[in-house]
Amino acid sequence: MRVLLSSRGSRGDVEPLAALAVELQRLGAETLVLAPPDQEFVDLLGKVGVPHLPVGGSVRALVKDLRTTGKAPRTSADLRVHVDELIEAYSGPLTEAARDADAIVATGLFPGVATAQAVSEKLGLRFVKVFLQPTTLPSPAHPPHPMPGWPLPEGVTDNRVLWDHNIEVMQDLFGPSINEYRESIGLAPVDNVRDYVNNGPWLATDPVLSPWETTDDDVVQTGAWILEDDRPLSADLEAFLAAGEAPVYAGFGSIPLMAPGEAARAAVEAARAHGRRIVLLRGWADLDVIDGGDDCFVVGEVNQQALFRRSAAVLHHGGAGTTTTAAMAGVPQVVVPQIVDQPYFAGRVAALGIGAAHEGPVPTTESLTAAFATALDSATARRATEVAASMRRDGAAYAAKLLVDEIG
């Protein structure tokens, strides 16, 4: 059995596919992951023995350019340029790689998933669309995300109406490009590209952290796909951790920031206000120390699973992977959401009582000091431990068995 896994996305999109690939290999399947060529993905997949086919340009460079230079698409026409480029870059390598496959599993940006779906349809393969957050799935429990050139209608509060409107939005943004590609390979165009591509999806999130309310869609919630990390922490980091009480951690993962220096200063000063040391993740935000204080330590690539278990609190952007990793570690969280699904995860952290949801994307010393007061409270720590004990740990293994049992 051969499974092709595809993602045009950041670390949060690629790492879950690596976790699934590892479990598929344990069941005897052959796997190949199509993902951006960034070195961190090369290293990530290489260290777990998962073959990697680099496709397209650097996603880190693209995200930084869009986030920090004001070049983010603001209209439908702006976005279509990126959609056409993505389909052109992915369709050829994807088709060639899929010729020997039995199934395609895809996540990440919608046009990339739609391309994978079209290829699987053309070749007669099993196709699995994977959501890594519930907020991009139609549900009366939440509204859709606003899209470039398509803000949510003013005054409309019924989520069902908003999701019906979202069909038109997605068709306008992605339908022309996707249908052009479909027709180029002999497939019929579709007039509701959102629901056609998203038919029968899998939801790879934890049911405690991200519960799914049953809808008319045939959604399979597998649990989160977490790649186990057994790497040791560096000797320097171990020495820092051993030199005092547990520090707080701050990092924004794969999210570049407009003012990383100000964010780092706010985090450091807020930690100091509570008498805490701090570990800063450099990440795509390029966080760094603000002075020569020995109460600060900067890390690059690091085993977050190990580090979080030894932290007093974790400040982050609210990505699905980081939120889940922190929740499984039983560490209180401060979530400073930036985009898309991150406000949802901030809200879930607050609702579960395992941390604080920051108001808005721009942290200050004062706002983080207040948020850390919640996260560092003993009641929050106890609740974080309780929630961690209730979370599902076998999501990737469960999903792999589902696919293997179906395909044979």
Automatic annotation (TrEMBL):
GO molecular function, one term: hexosyltransferase activity
Alphabetical list of SUPFAM superfamilies matching this protein: UDP-Glycosyltransferase/glycogen phosphorylase
BP-aspect Gene Ontology terms: antibiotic biosynthetic process
Protein origin, superkingdom: Bacteria
The Erythromycin biosynthesis protein CIII-like C-terminal domain, residue ranges: 298-396
Keywords: Transferase
Keyword set includes Calcium: no
Keyword RNA-binding attributed: no
InterPro entries for the chain: EryCIII-like_C (IPR010610), Glycosyltransferase_28 (IPR050426), UDP_glucos_trans (IPR002213)
Family matches, as PANTHER family: STEROL 3-BETA-GLUCOSYLTRANSFERASE (PTHR48050), STEROL 3-BETA-GLUCOSYLTRANSFERASE UGT80A2 (PTHR48050:SF13)
Name of the protein in its database record: Vancomycin aglycone glucosyltransferase
The organism of origin for this protein: Glycomyces harbinensis
